[in-house]
Design a protein that fits this description.
Distance between the termini: 68 Å
Helix content: 40-55%
Strand order of the largest sheet: 1-2-4-3
Number of helices: 15
Radius of gyration: 23 Å
Number of strands: 8
Strand content: 5-15%
Structural class: alpha+beta
């Protein structure tokens, strides 16, 4: 396979691929890591699953499975994105498997390092991903859209020609952006959450307001926590969870004490009564001058209810004494 044919195959995928989930683009995104096999200055995890042969690399599907688990972690646990319009979020195979993995690891805010996904301890997790997600749903089907590898007879590995590796190496940033675009476009058909493209590209938003704006907010709150109105302000708190809005705007920020911030956690919404107080605060002239025409009370109220149905836990958080 020459470089021109490789280019043609990727173009076929980006222009003609039919998808019922995001497994296909995430499989391709996993292959991008192969460019680091011999060129990486950093530790390359999963190298034992790759074997150099005449004409290309033999890649064990455990390598793909480890990347699958790593890349799906944040969309599931951090952003709670649906992966298919046909199934509830919790019924997608990759999410069910990751739920079991999280139960073994214990709940955590941050994504585990790639070494965890490559660990012998999680071999059963990778085996399930291979069986339920890769072999069942993507391995053969992707070839119809992007014929850039060959499947071994035992269906446990693939052979990727050096021409494919070379093409990926020369075009990796472009390919990653294009794959992220495909993933985003699909997810937008089954999710109403904002900022999906930014979430998939793993670009973190500004997490804090400018000091000048927050200082003004603190004064308006008489230096007391917006929620309990008793303890002093220690943190900037996202009313609608940051992992849902993936943005930091004054209308969604209040000054909060450490206790309320911890109790609200990172995925809870305040109860309706508390949220109505935020709406009333947002109607004050000082905040209107800061937000200008970028803020809409109706849109913000709608986002609150959409977040509750699509993202937040069923329970609402109510400030305690």
């Amino acid at each position: 396979m020459d470089i021109e044919e490789v280019r043609h195959q990727f173009n076929r995928f980006f222009t003609r691929a039919k998808m019922q989930s995001t497994y296909k683009p995430y499989f391709l995104k996993s292959l991008l890591d192969l460019t680091e096999y011999e060129n990486s200055t950093k530790p390359f995890h999963g190298k034992n699953w790759i074997k150099k042969l005449p004409g290309g690399l033999k890649v064990d599907l455990e390598f793909i499975a480890s990347r699958f688990a790593f890349m799906y972690w944040n969309p599931h646990f951090k952003f709670r994105l649906k992966q298919s319009p046909a199934y509830p979020r919790e019924d997608v195979h990759i999410y069910l498997i990751l739920d079991d993995m999280q139960n073994m690891l214990g709940e955590r805010k941050k994504i585990p390092k790639i070494t965890v996904f490559c660990s012998p301890t999680n071999s059963k997790i990778r085996t399930r991903i291979i069986s339920k997600c890769i072999q069942a749903d993507v391995l053969h089907r992707l070839l119809k859209d992007c014929n850039i590898y060959k499947i071994s007879n035992d269906k446990k590995s693939i052979f990727v020609p050096f021409s494919v590796i070379e093409y990926i190496s020369k075009n990796k940033p472009l390919l990653q952006n294009a794959i992220d675009f495909v993933i985003t476009s699909f997810l937008e058909t089954c999710n109403s959450a904002p900022q999906i493209a930014t979430k998939i590209s793993e670009k973190s938003p500004i997490s804090q307001l400018k000091n000048s704006i927050f200082d003004q907010m603190i004064r308006k709150q008489n230096k007391l926590c917006f929620y309990c109105v008793k303890r002093k302000i220690n943190v900037q708190e996202h009313v609608i969870p940051k992992n849902y809005v993936w943005d930091t705007k004054p209308h969604n920020i209040v000054g909060a004490c450490t206790k309320c911030n911890r109790e609200k956690w990172y995925n809870l919404l305040p109860d309706e009564n508390t949220f109505n107080k935020v709406l009333e605060r947002n109607d004050e002239e000082w905040l209107k001058k800061i937000e200008g025409d970028l803020y809409s009370r109706e849109a913000y109220h709608s986002q609150y209810h959409t977040c509750h149905s699509d993202y937040a836990d069923d329970e609402f958080w109510t400030p305690s004494d």
